[in-house]
Amino acid sequence: MFDTLSDRLTSVLQNLRGKGKLTDADIDATAREIRIALLEADVALPVVREFIAHVKERAKGAEVSEALNPAQQVIKIVNEELIGILGGETRRLSLAKTPPTVIMLAGLQGSGKTTLAGKLAMFLKKQGHAPLLVACDLQRPNAVTQLQVVGERAGVQTFAPEPGNGVGDPVDVARRGIDEAKHAQHDIVIVDTAGRLGVDEELMKQAADIRDAVQPDETLFVVDAMIGQDAVSTAEAFRDGVGFTGVVLTKLDGDARGGAALSVREVTGQPILFASNGEKLEDFDTFHPDRMASRILGMGDMLTLIEQAEQAFDQDQAEKAAAKLGTGQLTLEDFLEQMLAVRKMGPIGNLLGMLPGAGQMKDQLANVDDKHLDRLQAIIRGMTPAERADPKMINGSRRSRIAQGSGVSVREVNDLVNRFFEARKMMQQMAGRFGFGGGGSATK
Ligand code: GDP
């Protein structure tokens, strides 16, 4: 699910990489591509419109972050907006103050309600609750037996009407189910209701009658993510006909575009609580808007990296280093500080592994090891403060002393010092060209 959307968004955002500055035209072009990607994934038009408007406004606004480059900033904005349409914070089930908590499931036939009842029961049981399933889907042949089977698999009890009494009254079963739960000390009741193939009056009325009889603490609208644009209209019909407090997305393991399911929260204003991604009872979990957004963005852990960069970024230190850049005054001490700031973010292999496309770079990654950085740090630490501040003074005999003290070869010390001078010279030239820094004279 969301693979195509994910691929599209990833490539749109990757096109931004390497750009030093984004013009309004760049942002407009990116926004257009994102818009197409969302529409092709079946995300509802009003949702797309608002999403794009926010992204554009924020990307063009002065949301300048010192820690991130322009491409990273756009990725961050898109990610945050995506989390926004998915509901923001993770929403947990709200439990009644006086048990039992009543959870009613509503949705079309085939949306996965009965399966969900089992999944939810098992999920809650693992958390120490004692759920009771109540079979109020008396319409679909075998629905009661099916609920009993999933209940057994989940290891919970099921309350069902006695067989052989005709169709029976679902409202009456619901009421008796609640009584049974109170009596047998179940702290949660999950009420499975009947669905139809399409939305109809009778279905809505029955669901509304059950709702009135059991006064649910949560009514969960169960929607099959594979049904495309119909997801939105079905959600609206259930919102108006029965009302619900939360959404459960099912069949996220399918290969449909799924964007409609992403619109449900924005269109109905109700949060997505759970997601199902398979037929087994274990294929189910709490829905986390942030995790889903980063999965859709297909950014690996790029987003984590962005967050860590922001956290590890030390404004003072960076300003000091930037001011020194153009003057040619950058020292090995600054170099060490920068290196330590990067290292704060974790092992370098992990950092690189978080970058998109890193999967294909495994071989190169294997060569970038922390040991190399450790050695560089050891060399700089083996220098006296005076040497770090003025690397020019590091002559031949000092180089042998440093090499010996830090357990490396003289060649490695030479390499480091030479590279440092080259880098400093290059930065100074760049600073001169782009007009930042003080433009002092090169010191080598
Ligand atoms: P109900 O009519 O709403 O009670 O729907 P069911 O629970 O009977 O589910 C309808 C079909 O969808 C069944 O074959 C389930 O096994 C299947 N199903 C339910 N949830 C999922 C899911 O998350 N992924 C997949 N692939 N199938 C599911």
TrEMBL record:
Keyword Hydrolase: yes
GO biological process terms on file: SRP-dependent cotranslational protein targeting to membrane
SUPFAM superfamilies hit by this protein: P-loop containing nucleoside triphosphate hydrolases, Signal peptide-binding domain
Domain SRP54-type proteins GTP-binding: 271-284
Lineage top rank: taxon: Bacteria
Positions with a binding annotation for GTP: 107-114, 192-196, 250-253
CDD domains reported in the protein's UniProt record: SRP_G (cd18539)
Alphabetic keyword roster: Cytoplasm, GTP-binding, Hydrolase, Nucleotide-binding, Ribonucleoprotein, RNA-binding, Signal recognition particle
EC number: 3.6.5.4
Pfam family, one: SRP54
GO cellular component, one term: signal recognition particle
MF terms in GO: 7S RNA binding; GTP binding; GTPase activity
UniProt catalytic activity: GTP + H2O = GDP + phosphate + H(+)
Compartments (UniProt record): Cytoplasm
PROSITE patterns from the UniProt entry: SRP54
InterPro entries: AAA+_ATPase, P-loop_NTPase, Signal_recog_part_SRP54_M_sf, Signal_recog_particl_SRP54_hlx, Signal_recog_particle_SRP54_M, SRP, SRP54, SRP54_GTPase_dom
Enzyme class: hydrolase
Physiological role: Involved in targeting and insertion of nascent membrane proteins into the cytoplasmic membrane. Binds to the hydrophobic signal sequence of the ribosome-nascent chain (RNC) as it emerges from the ribosomes. The SRP-RNC complex is then targeted to the cytoplasmic membrane where it interacts with the SRP receptor FtsY.
Domains (record comment): Composed of three domains: the N-terminal N domain, which is responsible for interactions with the ribosome, the central G domain, which binds GTP, and the C-terminal M domain, which binds the RNA and the signal sequence of the RNC.
Quaternary structure (record): Part of the signal recognition particle protein translocation system, which is composed of SRP and FtsY.
HAMAP family given in the database record: SRP54
Protein family (similarity comment): Belongs to the GTP-binding SRP family. SRP54 subfamily.
PANTHER family (alphabetical): SIGNAL RECOGNITION PARTICLE 54K PROTEIN SRP54, SIGNAL RECOGNITION PARTICLE SUBUNIT SRP54
Protein name in the entry: Signal recognition particle protein
Organism expressing this protein natively: Amycolatopsis endophytica
